[in-house]
Automatic annotation (TrEMBL):
NCBIfam families: RhaI_grampos. GO terms for molecular function: L-rhamnose isomerase activity; manganese ion binding. It comes from Rhodococcoides trifolii. It comes from the Bacteria. Keywords: Cytoplasm, Isomerase, Manganese, Metal-binding, Rhamnose metabolism. Pfam families: RhaA. This is L-rhamnose isomerase. The keyword Metal-binding applies. One of its GO terms (biological process) is rhamnose catabolic process.
Length: 389
């Protein structure tokens, strides 16, 4: 059993989770995008919605942007708007998957002109970062092929390395380039950055400012994600998470919904080395879409799920675990983890919120606020957040 001495989840007071702007817009599958009353029409309204999530949870201090979905005339005014709403603008996500030019690839394309265009887009994203004060550029590369022999796998890696170097050279000294991986989709034979190994190799070639972002939905079924987390942390190359849940592929469902135990195991690897503390520099982000459920409450639920998994990880009796591991006590060690996982932490989290001056129940607080009814009346006409988030 966990003891009272280790029931300290106060570290969660400083644990922030970044939310994605695209979670607040309408999204869907290739079959249908369902519209939602009150959906944001502009990037400003997306930021306002995200600020609501922070207001009731106290744990969502930043909003990731997606360019061009969140393009505005004056990014510094978007940053001031965010600050007025007590949030900051976070990672800037590039987009090289919606332009006809990129049919055969973007940063890997055999055509030098198209590669240059894709590099220029990332340099434009870096300019956005300068205007918003964001420190992180996030690159998910959709490039790949559908048929064996369609293009040279090797040549594409060489082109990618060269393109990445050009982007990396455009970073300021305090910027980080996050390189994401995904094992398949939109291409189905090979993907140019399919796994953490490929992402890591490119990051190592680039330098200290390049790190891997791990999207929990981007692995083959059965992959031991916590092993990847542990390994990347050992190399100081885990830059960020894109949290979400998957049952089948890149489902982008609410984090902790499909497999809360997996989320706990991931957070245990994080907490066991203190990587949940702000000093680790790891950016804990959500990358989700709410196709059928209400979006703001969906984000609130997501934040709470990550908090619950992290609280449970904080309850792991580290010294008892280490002793059992060293003693070769297999079931004893497993029991230490399971004791923490099976603890109901909802009361502890409600107490923590109360101590922060927040409502004990963020879902109820949001429902009571009348915000949703207000925006449903005020906002007429919605904006498609964009495909693929
Ligand atoms: C596409 O798979 C994707 O979901 C990636 O995970 C990116 O992080 C996200 O879209 C936003 O571009
Ligand atoms: Mn992602
Ligand atoms: Mn994805």
């Amino acid at each position: 059993m966990t003891t009272a001495a280790v029931q300290d989840i106060s570290a969660l007071a400083d644990f922030g989770i970044e939310v994605p702007s695209w979670a607040y817009g309408n999204s869907g599958t290739r079959f249908k995008v369902f519209t939602t009353p009150g959906v944001p029409r502009t990037p400003f309204e997306k930021v306002a919605d995200a600020a609501e999530v922070n207001r009731v949870t106290g744990a969502a201090p930043r909003v990731s942007l997606h360019i061009p979905w969140d393009k505005v005339d004056d990014f510094s005014s978007l940053a001031s708007f965010a600050a007025d709403h007590k949030v900051a603008l976070g990672a800037v996500n590039s987009n090289v998957f919606q332009d006809d030019d990129y049919k055969l690839g973007s940063l890997t394309n055999a055509d030098k002109r198209i590669r240059a265009k894709a590099v220029a887009h990332h340099l434009e994203c870096i300019d956005v970062m300068r205007a918003t004060g964001s420190k992180t550029l996030k690159l998910w590369l959709p490039d790949g092929t559908n048929y064996a022999g369609q293009d040279s796998i090797r040549a594409r890696q060489d082109r990618l390395a060269e393109s990445l170097q050009e982007i990396y050279a455009g970073l300021d000294a305090d910027h980080t380039l996050l390189i994401e991986y995904k094992f398949f989709e939109p291409f189905f034979y090979h993907t140019d950055i399919p796994d953490w190994g490929t992402s890591l190799l490119h990051c190592l070639a680039l330098g200290d400012q390049a790190k891997v972002v791990l999207d929990t939905g981007h692995h083959a079924p059965g992959t031991n994600i916590e092993f990847i987390v542990a390994q990347l942390i050992r190399q100081n190359k885990l830059g960020a998470f894109d949290f979400n849940s998957r049952n089948y592929a890149d489902d982008d469902l609410i984090v902790g919904a499909a497999d809360p135990f997996q989320l706990f195991r991931i957070m245990h690897e994080i907490v066991s080395v203190g990587a949940h503390l702000p000093t680790s520099g790891i950016n804990f982000m959500l990358d989700q879409c709410h196709n059928i459920e209400p979006k703001i409450p969906g984000q609130i639920r997501s934040i709470m799920n990550v908090q619950e998994a992290t609280a449970k990880a904080l309850l792991v009796d580290a010294s008892a675990l280490e002793k059992a591991q060293i003693d070769g006590d297999i079931l004893g060690a497993h029991a230490v983890l399971m004791d923490a996982y099976n603890t109901d932490v909802r009361g502890l989290l409600a107490d923590l919120r109360e101590s922060q001056g927040l409502d004990r129940d963020p879902v109820a607080a949001f429902a009571r606020s009348g915000y949703m009814e207000r925006v449903e009346t005020d906002r007429v006409g919605g904006q498609q957040a964009g495909w693929g988030a």
